[in-house]
Please model this.
Amino acid sequence: MRISDCNNTADFRRLAKKRLPSPLFHYIDGGADDEITLRRNTEAFNNVRLIPNALADLSQMDMSTTVLGQKIDWPVFLSPTGMTRLFHHDGERATCRAAHKAGTMFSLSTIATVSIEEVGELTPGPKCFQVYIHKDRGLTYDFVERCKAANFSALCLTVDTLVAGNRERDLVTGMTMPPKLSLTSLLSFMTHPEWALNFLTSEKFQLANVADSISEGTGKLTSVVDYINGQFDRSITWKEAEKLIQAWGGPFAIKGLMSVDDARRAVDIGASAVMISNHGGRQLDGATAPFDQLPAIVDAVGDKIEVILDGGVRRGTHVLKALAMGAKACMIGRGYLYALAAGGQPAVDRALSRLREEIERDMILMGCSRISELNRSKLHFGK
Model:
């Protein structure tokens, strides 16, 4: 199977599974506990169906939207994902360039493997930084100043990861960070020599944004669970989030909210957007899906704050359903990580291009030439 044979997320997932050692593939692919929420995130889109209109002038299409103060060419942008160089040696460099090439926004994780400063210089395209509040408050606010200096467009505070979810696949596969040989993983690494050669001959693996501040950022860490449980502050409150918004002074999203009450609190403290997310089903299993919560949150705060959907998006029709329900835009994580693992930037370029083509084709089939024409009249909620 080649990159050119991949036409959708499922295809890139199959190729990624072939090219990655098992612990790394399952780190991307897996969720918490029984993975009920992981599956539900995508299955939720099946709850509604699309109602197309006919005989509209569709000779001129405009899929652009403005989100977090940035105009993007189509209503999907890249979620922040950590440790990306584990999956391909080009890591965040590849995904940032692919986002810019595709005309959309890139998001960088606190636990990225390329620094804020380098990503800031990679492209002139819009960039969002995902911040976690660390026990070391000085480190947290240093991220803010570094992002200002690097001309990042927006910040998002992730609030659903005070403790790491129970990702049992990682326990089974022996996933460590950086990867280490074990009896469990030895055979898988041996049968993926191309990945191993690239990993061993590339620059040293580290969590680039914290490597100078925390010893766990330099390669001493055994798992992402250790980092989350050891470094993230469980005592944070809405007052801390409000303080961070004021320190940044620009477009600011809160990521990981799932309740209407929390969305209203985000409005009250001055956030620009809420990102409805359950961390890809990797935290609290049994939680509701973002798409399930979307209508209630849009109805409560959609006229006051941008509502962005993060989770389960695999198809262009998923994006159209979210937009018709009231989302400003959607985010994808696994959708580009599978492609990155399958073949670096060329594969991410293809994955984004194919998804964008799906959205445009589906909009034409829906009889809509602009994003603003998608609304709940285009959705059927019955059986």
About this structure: The CA atoms of residues 144 and 248 lie 6 Å apart. The mean pLDDT is 91. The two ends are 38 Å apart (CA to CA).
